[in-house]
Amino acid sequence: MNFLLSQDWEAIQNAFSGGDQVAFTFFIGSMAMMAATAFFWLEMRNMDAKWRTSMMVSGLITFIAAVHYYYMRDYYVNTGDSPTFFRYVDWILTVPLMCVEFYLITKKSGGTIGTMWKLIGASVVMLVTGYFGEGIYREQAQIWGLVSGLAYFYIVYLVWFGEVAECAKSAGGAVAKANSALAKFVLIGWAIYPIGYMAGTAGWYGAEGQIFGMDLAMDVIYNVGDAVNKIGFGLVIYALAVADSE
Ligand SMILES: *C/C=C(C)/C=C/C=C(C)/C=C/C1=C(C)CCCC1(C)C
Questions:
Q1: What span, in angstroms and rounded, lies between the C-alpha atoms of 224 and 226?
Q2: pLDDT for 104-126, tens place per residue?
Q3: C-alpha–C-alpha distance, residues 109 and 120, integer Å
Q4: For the chain, first and last CA: distance in Å?
Q5: Which of 73, 77, 130, 157 could covalently link to 148 via disulfide, CB atoms 3.0 to 4.6 Å apart?
Q6: DSSP letter at 80?
């Protein structure tokens, strides 16, 4: 970290996490998720009634993450291991809620519960197979990663070209704009996670913890991904609610 003097950086890290970048990003992640939750829930009341559920769900997503980050930091600091189980419990709760957001913004223009369950089903397949590769059958990380990746691309397909995209397009205006922003988060922001997965498992053109010989810290990558995606998703919904509440 050369944007800070190294002794400053060390002092900051020591203050929060005993001098450890992974613990530090858990700490900052926990704070950022809490702040985002307060923002989404307090702003909810300034929006038209029809957007309040979406804002509430945005706050739930960051709230669930804030609580998990608190526990994940603790687990990591006490054991030195990645909190894989807590991580996937967090995701299995929050990613389906992100799928619900797609339903909530498109339901007025034909979005159905059936489509919502397709998204949720694919996200559960994506996460359960990811957990198998990362948490249980680590020597088969590649094959589980591949299955998980297929489910991920199905979600990408639905939100870019499939039913979700069609409903958003027919809604037009702020909803279409919000959907295309959320779709970009799914394609680009969510692509951060497979990089974290590869950094945490073996078999990706380097030793364990390496991709093409580069050393990368899985938990730091996941923590950055969560901050970008969970807070980013909520801000897109917020912008939609603001645009459509005037
Ligand atoms: C708030 C948490 C979010 C948005 C988590 C998203 C997680 C993913 C998109 C994970 C995807 C994975 C793959 C596509 C392949 C390797 C295994 C996973 C589970 C890391």
A1: 5
A2: 999 999 999 999 999 999 999 99
A3: 20
A4: 44
A5: 130
A6: S
Residue nearest atom 10 in ligand 1 by C-alpha distance: 193
Amino acid symbol at 143: I
* 130 within ligand 1 shell (Cβ under 6 A): yes
Q: Is the CB of 118 under 6 A from ligand 1?
A: no
CB contact at 8 A, 27 and 16 = yes
* Domain count along the chain: 1
Q: What is the CATH number of the domain that holds 224?
A: 1.20.1070.10
Q: For a pLDDT cut of 70, what percent of the chain falls above it?
A: 95
Query: How many Å lie between the centroid of ligand 1 and the Cα of residue 47?
Result: 31
- Which pLDDT does position 17 carry in this prediction? 60
Total-model pTM: 0.92
Q: What is the 190 CA–ligand 1 centroid distance (Å)?
A: 6
CB contact burial 11-46 (16+ within 10 A = b; e otherwise): eebeebbeebebbbbbbbbbebbbebbebbbebbee
Q: Does any ligand 1 atom lie closer than 6 A to the CB of residue 194?
A: yes
Kindly state if the Cβ of 115 falls inside 6 Å of ligand 1: no
What CA–CA distances, in Å, run from 52 to 58, 96, 120, 191?
Answer: 10, 18, 21, 29
Residue 99: alpha-carbon gap to chain centroid = 11
CA distances from 220 to 51, 98, 112 (A): 33, 22, 36
Its domain, for residue 92, covers 2-245
